[in-house]
Amino acid sequence: MQATGAAMTGETQGDGTEMAASTARLRLASSQTTNDLVLDDVTMRFQTREGTITAVDRVSLSIERGEFVSIIGPSGCGKSTLFNILGGLVSGYDGTVSVAGETVSGPHPAIGMVFQEESTFPWRTVIDNVAFPLEVKGVAKAQRYATARKFIDMVGLAGFEQRYPAELSGGMRQRVAIARTLVFEPKILLMDEPFAALDEQTRLLLGDKVLNIQQDLKQTTLLITHNITEAVQLSDRVVIMSFRPGKVKRIVDIRLPRPRRGDVVGSDAFGRYVAEIWNDLREEASRGMAESEKGALGRAER
Amino acid sequence: MFLTRIPPIAFGLATLGLVLGAVEILLRLQILNQFVIPLPSAVFGSFGRLFSEEELARRLLLTGAEALTASVLVAIVGIGLGMLLYRFRTLRLATEPWVAAVAAAPIVLAYPLFLVIFGRSAATIVAMGFVAGLGPVILKTLEGLNGVRKSLINVGRSYNLTPAQQFRMILLPAAVPTIFVGVRLGLIFALINLIGVEFLINFGGLGQLINDLAERYDLPGMFATIIFVILVSVVIFAGLERMERWFRPVQ
């Protein structure tokens, strides 16, 4: 692990000892002032026909101001549940989420969200989509258009202001969604697999774009992904989640140089990080696959 | 290759012309019976007479006014009720199957009941058109609102929109295409019933004229009036399509 430059932090949970968990909580408490986003012992359970499912199990995590953190894990590890909890879109969980020391109990103005699914408004032009949060806020048309143009330019869509989402490619639509989130100038950016529906090349190019924007704006960013390359390319830290119940299995520090350029994906160190994370994820992904096959078999038999 | 360069409308008109020409020839050769099918040339020739002697323009205005009243009522009340059922789940559970049943029922057969309530007047015609068109508008409004993608709703929630803003800025515009399908269906149902009731109670505009001409066994005039109704419907629905494009420029 040392050879790759990856470092395992003291935030191991679930499988770790009580002492490790206490150390994590101590770190958490002492660093809350510089942390933008803190999850403390967050647990989320769902009632289903099969019984109670623990989607997220005692997850604690602190993200520093300006840090880029990715959460990676197999399907069903509670990544999206965590995203919804952080965004204040779900309630009924145990534990607390706080933004700059303030406990979150619903959507927080400091948090901007980019969703996995197509979320541009098909009835609005690009500029009206991007200006939407400002319109909600009551900003005058001329001013909100000027601000929207700045962010449209930032995501590389200048010249497409008057187009409708149906006239754009999937990658361009996702950039519109990113610009719409950025225009609100949130302190914290949450992204839930924003490039999941895109091909690999577009994904890498958009990754570069996001990286540049994040380095420019110095926003605290949390990316939910199942793509290891994407996580390593963009992050300062990668949080590996276990399959259900979703716990933090390990946190890997990505010590690749910053400012990071797109060609970082070709470096040896990058490859070693990817291999190392996959080693951790393989077991979880296999468990996830076995569970879903078992579930499908059970449904077929019923 | 040559055929693909012809605009679809010219293609359609040419096909229609060919079919009518063939019918004309078959009727003149007495292969088809002129007592059942009038000569297409006589049908088109009777349009002038219909305008001058049968007051086709005045009747169009009369039916048009009834149709407009019924359509406005169908759109306002139908969309309003659809929104209400979307908002109140219990109300929806209690009434949705009945709305669906009414939408599928041949409402026109209930015209005696409407005659008793409203008398032999334009009110009966408008009321029947309204009731017939209401079901599809309610059901499609409900379907449109229920079908709004979760991700769009979540965008609104992430910006802390109030329920009224969420409805006005996200739910309603997202549901517009489906609501328009309902409005179009509702207007078709309303128009069919409107003209049907005019025909049945021998009162009002174009429906009554069709009845009159049928009673007088004026087949060319009757067919010409039916074609006129079809043309008016085509114009109405082309107008609706334009209105929909204005609401939602790119789908």
How does this model look, in words?
The complex is a heterodimer of chains A (302) and B (251). With 302 residues, chain A is an alpha/beta fold. Chain A folds into 2 domains: 18-110 and 189-301, P-loop containing nucleotide triphosphate hydrolases (Rossmann fold, 3-Layer(aba) Sandwich); 117-185, no CATH class. Chain A contains 9 helices and 10 strands. In chain A, α5 (141-154) crosses α6 and α8 runs antiparallel to α9 (268-301). By secondary structure, chain B is mainly alpha-helical. Chain B has a domain at 58-216: MetI-like fold (Orthogonal Bundle). Helix content of chain B is 80%, strand content 0%. Chain B has helices spanning 8-28, 40-45, 47-53, 56-87, 89-104, 111-118, 122-146, 150-158, 163-201, 206-215, 219-247. In chain B, α5 packs across α7. Chain B starts with 7 loop residues before the first helix and ends with a helix. The chains are: A alpha/beta (302), B mainly alpha (251). The A-B interface holds A 87-89, 106-107, 109, 111-113, 115-119, 121-123, 132-133, 135-136, 164, 166-167, 180, 184 and B 149-152, 154-155, 157-161, 165, 169-170, 173-174, 176, 247-251.
Structural descriptors:
heterodimer; A: 302 residues; alpha/beta; Rossmann fold; six-stranded mixed beta sheet; four-stranded antiparallel beta sheet; 9 helices; 39% helix; globular; disordered N terminus; B: 251 residues; mainly alpha; MetI-like fold
Distance between the termini of chain A: 46 Å
H/I helix tally of chain A: 9
CATH topology of the domain at 58-216 in chain B: MetI-like fold
End-to-end C-alpha gap of chain B? 30 Å
Strand content of chain A: 15-25%
Largest sheet of chain B: none
Percent helix of chain B, as a range, is over 70%
Low-confidence stretches of chain B: none
Assembly type of the chains comes to heterodimer
Radius of gyration of chain B: 22 Å
Strand order, largest beta sheet of chain A:
6-7-8-3-9-10
Helix content of chain A: 25-40%
CATH architecture of the largest domain in chain A: 3-Layer(aba) Sandwich
Name the shape of chain B in a single word. Answer: globular
Give the overall pLDDT of chain A as a whole number: 82
